[in-house]
Amino acid sequence: MRTEDVLAAIATGLWRWDNASGTVTLDTEAARLLGLPAEPVVLPEVAVRSRFHPVDWNEINGIVNLAVAEGTLAEARLRIMDEDGRVLRTVRSRSKPVENRDPDGRVDYELIGTIQEIAEPQPGTTAAHTPITGDWRRSREAFLLDAGRALAEARSTAEVLRVAASLSMPGFNPDGLAVFGVAGDRLSIIGHHGHGPGDEGPFTDMTLETDYPAAEVVRSGRAIYLPSPEDYKRRFPATWPLAQRFDRESWAFLPLIVAGRTMGAWMAAFKHPVSFSPDERSVLTTVARMLAQALQRAGVAESERELTTGLQRSMMPQLGPEIPGMQIAARYVPTGGGLQVGGDWYDMIPLPSGRFALVIGDVQGHDVRAAGLMGQLRIAVRAYASEGHRPDAVLSRASRFLAGLCSSQESDSAEDPDLGGGADPDFQSPRFATCLYVECDPRTGVLEVARAGHPDPAIRMTDGTVLVRPTAGGLPLGIVPDTDYPTTRFTLEPGETMMLCTDGLIETGGHDLDTGWARLRAILETEADLAAGHLEKLADLLVQAVHGPSSHHTTGPLADRREDDIAVVLLCREGGGCGCGSPQLHPGRPARRTMLTVAQAEPEQIAGARRQIRELLHDWADPEQVDSVVLMVSEMVTNVLVHTDGDALLVAEAAGELGGRRLRVEVADASDELPHKRHPGEMASSGRGVLLMEMLADTWGVDPQGEGKSIWFELREQSKPDAEPVR
Length: 727
Known about the structure:
By secondary structure, the chain is of the alpha+beta class.
């Protein structure tokens, strides 16, 4: 009896599906089962496909692709439709995909198999459902959606492994999981679940030539299903003793493939027998593909994080060795969209002269390019300073360096769009940087400051009063290559603390320069901070005022609440009142003192002198006396600029206990011409300086010096008189 007759007797048809030619060959029984005339026929693929239910066709297409990838049988249930769309019958198809290679080298496949009618359970009967049911399909789809979402959200290898361990597959939940990785010709375990400590020992360093399922999966790129211990023992007798001790019944080993490369294997082991039906294999294969993609993403992300963390650590600012007689503290808070380094930086540089330099700067922007320019500019500034250049020369050279660096990047991006500049106009746009360079003599406390568009330093005096120290400055670095940066010189007295910061500390949280300084001054002048006696704590308090919980209660008047990188450096010269080092006791309250030079070419600095006096006398008892002092200082400095050819040196000192202090203000110049009293008319615009001092000051005078003179006045603090009661 022929094979065709036997198959026809049991209502089983034969078919051959040639994917390359797009034709399907049916025998007599297969044609009948598909609702066609009962005779052998060769039909186009479209004619046969129209006989299948659309949902079943989509499913069998995935099953066939799975069978091609694994080299197994493709088995599926299909509903046969008539021309009117009614279901005629349900058949089971079992076929073997066979690869064919055409003369051009293109690989295709051909399906050779059988179809057989099966009986559907009737409504009201107790017939068991097959694994392919609507409810199971819905559970499978929901499981795969949840698993895909969880794996997509995993950001590290450890998280991916935790998600894989928590997967609860519909109908067949694995008891043990293991993920194997490949390194050269060795197989190792990346992670596992459902095993005890040390159980992974024999599998941690296994060659790919080992007769072990995971090794074979990696070598062949095909899945291996072992439904029973007998199958395992028969196929892998050498490594069966390793698996036997875990007392499991079924195993599935699937390749982890990304972009055509097998990066490892995934094992799912079961305490109960699993037949690994096509639907179960489909679920496992889909999970393996998602797991491979998630592990690949996590590996790439971890490599990038390791690389960027190493680069960021090398670029992070650092302070140098301890300096006798001085204390230094610094903080850095980047806000670059996840970057741990931004455009702000600070540095402490030992100089050949035995002094040291403090540098703080801010490169325009908060992106990767700003961080890169910051690193290069920081190295350049350190190199110029280490050569022994003066502060003004260091900034001039740094400005020339940054301008040349930006122009070379712009030209390179224009010539080669592949460098990235063509895709991002901001990448090739010029950048500038603000910078403040301070050269410090630790023995005398003398500071020489050069400033390039950066906020001025602030000085906290021994009694806690904070003054913003005006310094001469030039344009930000990189705008004009050849720019001069004048140097300002002053002394940091024992017990005083200097604060250098970037504008992020001042303006973050909707603040402008004025309100931002007021917020910081409140922190710096707090008596509790002074008594705390620790510069590091003061640095923390400054950052917390901007980024801590209290920052939500101290928002500024501006609508823009964008954050900025923050860098802050505190330099304290040890002495009484500073709170660090060995405090020296004062017999009384320490004196406040400020000094400022107003140059002939900078008359706008008169406003800075007025601001200095107001900050010095911020807690003076009588505000009207403060107004009088500001008026006299403005008049004295203006007279020097108008009637002499030199600069004006302003020195102000307030000494004594609160409520009874004495203020002495001196304005010195290089002219020998003494002031004299005038009698200006009502419409005169000048000539009232001496009259004002006679009316407002307690005492005043003129002291001739070797070259020039010094005009001074003194004023004693007095409480503002109470207003007379209204009668």
